[in-house]
Design brief:
Blueprint: H1 2-45, H2 48-57, H3 73-91
Length: 93
């Protein structure tokens, strides 16, 4: 009985440490995956094509280009859609 009590604490500590280790290993693996994803994203963002696309989204234009701002595109599309239906119905007769 005394031997069992003497082994209980070290065995308990060992099992607890093993459990904590598996949790930490999983956390490290997740962080490594996130780091890999961020590195891939950084490589893509560093390419000229991506930088140009991002600049376009911010409203930048190249020298010599003209900027046109088009408004109410959804409204225009609805009008086009309605007029397209009216025209296609007239052709079916």
């Amino acid at each position: 009985m005394l031997v069992g009590l003497l082994y209980y604490r070290p065995l308990h500590d060992y099992l607890d440490a093993r459990s904590q280790r598996s949790v930490r290993v999983a956390a490290v693996e997740k962080l490594q995956q996130e780091q890999d994803a961020l590195r891939r994203r950084l490589r893509r963002a560093s390419s000229l094509a991506v930088l140009v696309a991002e600049a376009r989204l911010l409203g930048y234009i190249r020298p010599g280009e003209h900027l046109f701002i088009v408004k109410d595109i959804p409204q225009w599309q609805r009008r086009q859609h309605r007029s397209g239906h009216a025209a296609s119905r007239g052709h079916g007769r």
